[in-house]
Specification:
This protein is an alpha+beta fold and about 130 residues long. Strands 1-6-4-5 form a four-stranded mixed β-sheet, covered by helices on one side. A two-stranded antiparallel ribbon has the order 2-3. Strand 2 and strand 3 form a beta hairpin. The two termini are about 15 Å apart.
């Protein structure tokens, strides 16, 4: 157990897109491939630009909480593009997340993601000792 668990809170401005629904089909050497859409690549870049920089990355078991404000109701609730974009900026690998909470809201004028990531003490056995 650490002496102090750190928490990072920040806001990413812009409309989040679903990683699963933001793919495009391309061919590479005659083979079909699905890659991220241009919209997803731009959003991922924006997340990386807007994310805070820490002296040392968050470590150990982590929790992730995000309130995602979409510009319309059509968007799927999907935090995976956020988790991927923040990897190697705030934490080494998104496998460290033991808790993920995401909520969907509507804000046509100011789409954004309000994010909180925290180091946590986690018992992988649940209630067992």
């Amino acid at each position: 157990m650490k002496d102090v668990n750190r928490t990072v809170k920040f806001v990413v401005l812009g409309a989040a897109c679903s990683k699963a629904n933001s793919r495009r089909l391309v061919t590479n050497n005659g083979k079909p491939r699905f890659i991220k859409s241009k919209e997803a690549l731009v959003f991922e870049r924006d997340v990386k630009i807007q994310a805070p920089r820490l002296n040392t990355m968050l470590d150990g078991d982590l929790s992730f909480s995000a309130d995602i404000y979409y510009p319309n109701r059509r968007s799927d609730l999907d935090p995976s593009i956020l988790l991927d974009a923040l990897q190697n900026i705030l934490y080494k690998n998104d496998r460290a997340f033991k808790q993920i909470t995401t909520r969907k809201f509507l804000d046509k004028k100011n789409p954004r993601c309000e994010i909180e990531i925290a180091e946590i003490d986690w018992n992988e056995l649940g209630d067992e000792k």
